[in-house]
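Dear Dr. H.,

I hope your travels went smoothly. While you were away I took the liberty of generating a structure for the chain from your last submission, since the lab meeting agenda had it listed for discussion. I wanted you to have the full record in hand beforehand rather than looking at slides cold. The sequence, exactly as received, is reproduced here:
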Amino acid sequence: MTLKARITNATLRTLFRLFFKIDRREFDKMPRSGPFMIIANHTSTFDGPLMYVFMQPRKMIAMAKQELWDHWFTRYIMNLWESIPVDRENMGRQTMEQCFEVLDRKDILAIAPEGTRSKDGCLQQGKAGVAFIAHKKQVPMVPIVITGFERFKQHIKRCRRTPLTIRIGKPFRIVQGTGRLDASGRERLIEEIMLRLADLMPESHRGFYADHQVEYTLTCESDLA
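The corresponding predicted structure, in token form, is as follows:
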């Protein structure tokens, strides 16, 4: 890791501790090495950076909206972390290839399947692109949920640190083999992936998946160490 990266990460860790109450022990459940995919909810611009700086020295590459490369500061951070720019409306072939390369290097690929931030902290409908990547590479997935960012403005006005809750689920993998995954299969698979996220969230935050029954037929728990 470069000196610039160490300084940037240390600065961000300090800022996170200053503004948030974080119990980082949950990160001990995260496997020590890849390849695997992190499947995370997305409620703030801070959730990706929080995972990145507190998971060090594990190598994590995240997908990020391409608009972050439009501003010099966020472009600097994204390039420093080797993030993958993605068009949220159309995940192109180049983006897919970059994701495949991360997993081929046995690194960790982080994806927010919702594709965009949830303003109220509730889970939104997942995009099918993540299902295609997971099926193509047949790597385990680890669900992670971070809640509390939606109360940041409320707490900062009172000069209080915002409590965050971090929950990491058991690794899981796709049961189905390497055959063709059609559109219907992708929809069923992304639903199971999102339900594993919803299972880690309080009922009040399950959003789109609040009334879905948990029945896993395409995925099962994995023994990823």
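Two observations you may find useful: The helical segments are 3-19, 47-54, 72-80, 93-104, 129-137, 152-156, 183-198. The mean pLDDT is 90.

With kind regards,
E. W.
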